[in-house]
Design brief:
Length: 278
């Protein structure tokens, strides 16, 4: 519960700093109803993640935000990503071909799939009623972490896209990956995002990634964007992937309701993944 509250609060701090500019510790403390020391810890965390720049007595949004590496992102919003991944795993059916984009939340989904396919063969995870029993899956991915997670998973055929490896995102991109996508189709595509905007689509640090994402989504019957609450409505970079006519946003309980409503107003199906049981 405390971690969930901190994630929600930091998302609101980032939103306020982005929309109003310079934010002081005192102003943030008053608006969010927490102590100044709590705000300072939040600002230190957001600064370490490259999302804010500290100033004397407060913080301001970065004019040119830096892209966090996949390793850095794996530890962020952990509970939220696990909740989203668990929900995403629950909609996948045996025998399907699914696309897992690169990213920390899709990496969590890969781990859920590994557990679900192990369950179908009676190996481990006893008592895990939250897991779906899955068999005969084909998983296509551009993400190195997904390949590693599913390399030895029973009942999963893994198709890894070739191309140039982006070290920051641990993702394959470029003409070779794009060519491979053109020869495939998917029952479901699960997309990662640096952020997602109701009007603009998926925001990324790298233009090459946006083209690949658009191709992935165009080849899928169902598209899901997996993004925890702090990623909604943000525009940290200037490269965008245009969304298909129909898609589903899967977020978590920390999501700001007005931000969620913006997606609903544009006809996007929104799923709030329930928090993991304690």
């Amino acid at each position: 519960m405390a971690r969930h509250a901190a994630q929600t609060r930091r998302g609101e701090i980032l939103r306020l700093a982005t929309t109003t500019g310079l934010a002081s510790v005192e102003e943030l403390s008053d608006q969010l109803g927490v102590t100044a020391s709590t705000i300072r810890r939040d600002l230190a965390k957001l600064t370490a993640q490259g999302m804010l720049a500290r100033t004397y007595g407060g913080a301001m949004p970065l004019s040119h935000p830096t892209e966090a590496s996949l390793r850095q992102r794996l530890g962020e919003a952990f509970d939220a990503k696990q909740a989203i991944a668990r929900w995403a795993c629950s909609v996948i059916e045996s025998g399907e071909t699914v696309l897992l984009d690169a990213g920390s939340t899709t990496a969590a989904l890969a781990q859920q799939l590994k557990a679900a396919t192990a369950l179908s063969r009676g190996s481990g995870h006893l008592g895990r009623a939250d897991l779906t029993d899955l068999t005969d899956l084909t998983v296509v991915t551009a993400g190195v972490s997904t390949v590693a997670a599913l390399a030895e998973a029973d009942g999963v055929e893994v198709i890894a896209l070739g191309g140039r490896l982006r070290t920051m995102s641990q993702a394959f991109v470029g003409p070779l990956a794009e060519s491979a996508i053109s020869r495939l189709s998917f029952d479901r595509a699960f997309m990662g995002a640096d952020s997602v905007h109701a009007e603009r689509g998926i925001c990324e640090a790298d233009l090459e990634q946006t083209l690949l994402k658009e191709l992935m989504m165009s080849r899928a019957t169902h598209t899901y964007v997996l993004a925890h609450g702090a990623k909604l409505g943000q525009s940290p970079f200037h490269a965008w992937a245009v969304m298909p006519a129909r898609w589903t946003l899967v977020t978590d309980e920390s999501a700001d309701l007005p931000a969620v409503q913006e997606f609903c107003d544009r006809g996007v199906e929104v799923v709030i993944a329930p928090a993991l049981p304690r």
